[in-house]
């Protein structure tokens, strides 16, 4: 079984993906990490992010070994990831890695922006996670502070809105809800409430109780 979770920045889809995978005993891929890994290599090398050819070259040399690097979580890397992920050729290079991951047994949960629309259009269950921008900014700020980073909530909100705009309005695989995805608004849910709601969606779709 493949579960596709998409949604905007800081919507909580990563945590949901991880928790759903643990619940079902599936493998989990936070696909944002892929774009962040490519972006970090470019930033570390002092590359010009507007140079698409360099971004494509970095994507071809993707090293999954750095996926666990905590530096990938920073706002700067996330912002750079949003820029380079808009390049169609960068996305193309990264498609097969994601599809291979999804295809391996016993099942997989992938979260990102285009999983239900482009990477796994035949996913068994698709969930589109949203939350109010103010709520997302609050959560992101608290997370950053917990990591010991200095975070200004108004600035985080501005960054989230800018990123949403870029991710939704790019021509290559823009962030959008697949027609057969179930919407999950977790603005008023805590993590446990969100996980319960997501499991209910998976169970309802699997049982055929919910036609999406
Ligand atoms: O989910 P995230 O914040 O880690 O993602 C970082 C950036 O990567 C995001 O702003 C857009 C890009 N991204 C993408 O284009 N497609 C995905 N499937 C996942 C992330």
TrEMBL record:
ATP binds at residues 7-15. InterPro entries: Cytidylate_kin (IPR003136), Cytidylate_kinase_dom (IPR011994), P-loop_NTPase (IPR027417). Residues 3-202 form the Cytidylate kinase domain. One of its GO terms (molecular function) is ATP binding. GO terms for cellular component: cytoplasm. It catalyses: CMP + ATP = CDP + ADP; dCMP + ATP = dCDP + ADP. It comes from the Bacteria. One of its GO terms (biological process) is pyrimidine nucleotide metabolic process. The keyword Transferase applies. CDD domains: CMPK. It is found in: Cytoplasm. Its EC number is 2.7.4.25. Keywords: ATP-binding, Cytoplasm, Kinase, Nucleotide-binding, Transferase. Belongs to the cytidylate kinase family. Type 1 subfamily. This is Cytidylate kinase. It comes from Rhodopseudomonas palustris. The gene is cmk.
